[in-house]
Amino acid sequence: MAPMPSAESTPASVHEPDPVRPTHQDPVAAAGSELIGGPMGRRALLGASWWTPVRVIALVAIGMFVLGLVQKAPCYNGAWFFGASSQYTHACYSDIPHLYQGRGFADGLVPYFEKLPGDMEYLEYPVLTGLFMEAASWLTPGSGTIQDQEQWYWMVNAGMLMVCAAVIAVCVTRTHARRPWDGLLVALAPAFALTATINWDLLAVALTAAALLMWSRQRPLAFGVLLGLATAAKLYPFLILGPLLVLCWRAGKWRPFGTALGGAALAWLVVNLPVMLYAFDGWSKFYTFSQERGVDFGSLWLILAQNSDDPLSTETVNTLATLLMLLCCGAVAALTLTAPRRPRFAQLAFLIVAAFILTNKVYSPQYVLWLVPLAVLARPKWRDFLIWQACEVAYFLGIWMYLAYTTSGDAHKGLPTDGYHWAIGLHLLGTLFLCVMIVRDILMPDRDPVRRTGEDDPSGGVLDGAEDVFVLGPAARTEPPATHVEGPQVHWGKSREPDGSL
């Protein structure tokens, strides 16, 4: 029998590098870990017991989701139905119970195909979200008072959205194979728990997170299909294709991008085409409503409108918001092609979605859910993440206190208009802060918390470790800067197989 090779004779590139320990690299994570006994040891990190990172993070995500449900208890016990302002003073408002009757689910109307009573003729949500809402109504008991049915409808939706929350946490945990514990940022995000059951956004977020996981596994077709489904549930996921196009251009990876684009278009058409053909007016309501909707909560445009004697028209705001978004897209493309080192996919995905949020004419509090998984993958730094989350929690409280003020009559309970404007500004500044930190990481790759541990682009799939073929500016005339690596140099290339269970 041939002798087994010794550890000393094994090439360094064969050894799989150790997972990254946030409690050993991040001061905030290390300080927070003292609440549960201090930084974890190697045995716990490698998942020697049943408590692997994926299982721990999934259970923590479910636990935080349940706490979010508990926070909605005052509304479940009556504030949704018997007090217009109390659902705001308790910060427990949700669209879900109100739309059960308001969008015809209580009466058995078929979304998109049957007209609704009132001003909103058809359901104003994309098709896959409408199917999700309809499926929840099938599971809702039709007996009892309308209040009983609305309570049941909210609970059914909450159960379905809890599955989406767990999927998001698991997908983020497994996307960066060496950094599974970064998934705790998703699981513990306070704004995530507070806004999870306001609306149905978690469906699109879960599909997007799953798509990013598939791209990291070098499965562009699965990525495209999942992203197309996500876009059929909410509009924002398709924006991610823009930075991916520019990244693939810089790396010369046209075939994977074409496969992803084709899969996304096919999946979106499969979901939308039947409704588009047989109920076009109902299908198009989401798109026409988005254009016709005036300036609304949470946006910079609302601050301008409420402080102006002659507010801009909706058409003008639409034009200006579109132009600003196009400028942001151009800036992201220029950054991608001129950066000293090719940016990571997650970094650009966060920047483009954040640009859409910052320039849009409305910012509902649950839109923070779109950014949470992208923020964790783009900049897994506890301090910066928690600063941003604090700003979002402040906005979450601010909007409900403002609505309490406007609905409490002469009592004026809550936050006046000027105070609400400060809450909006805090949300905008918090998001901009995270954008600035990510742009700094792109321009100075040695500051990137992911690349400092010796990796290139763990969520980049075929882009991970790829050579550049098209670069502009000074980066085209210089060698890529060496990555600062903490600890021993390791090879972590395309041969890796991500394993979130560690």
From TrEMBL:
The chain crosses the membrane at residues 50-70, 152-172, 184-215, 221-248, 260-280, 317-339, 345-364, 385-405, 420-443. It comes from the Bacteria. Keywords: Cell membrane, Membrane, Transferase, Transmembrane, Transmembrane helix. It is found in: Cell membrane. Residues 15-24 have a biased composition (Basic and acidic residues). It is a multi-pass membrane protein. Residues 1-26, 475-502 are annotated as: Disordered. Belongs to the glycosyltransferase 87 family. This is Glycosyltransferase family 87 protein. It comes from Streptomyces ardesiacus.
